[in-house]
Amino acid sequence: MPTLFERIVAGELPADIVYKDAQITAFRDIHPRAPVHILIVPNKPIPTANDITDADAPLIGRLFIVARDLARKLGIAEDGYRLIVNCNAHGGQEVYHLHLHLVGGAPLGPMVSTR
Questions:
Q1: Is 90 an annotated catalytic residue?
Q2: Which helix (H) or strand (E) holds 20?
């Protein structure tokens, strides 16, 4: 069964798409955690970071190039931003289609809280 992100990439579900090419689709998160919160996904379904193969290296590099370019385009590159990849349940992954969160537009505070 296709994931939510596969359906967005295929155009079956609506999304606020900010970038799309043959390999990558980027769209605004529906529950943003910062003024800028973009999800950048490979069009090829890869469930988790654990499922990345050596052959995927150029695609994974492309995710970061798109993130860099979007940060510049959205005006957050100079002040700074965070790139996040969650993996599996303990890592907070909710959709099992590899994705990069581009988050910024305000001070983000510490990356992990110490309880």
A1: no
A2: strand 17-20
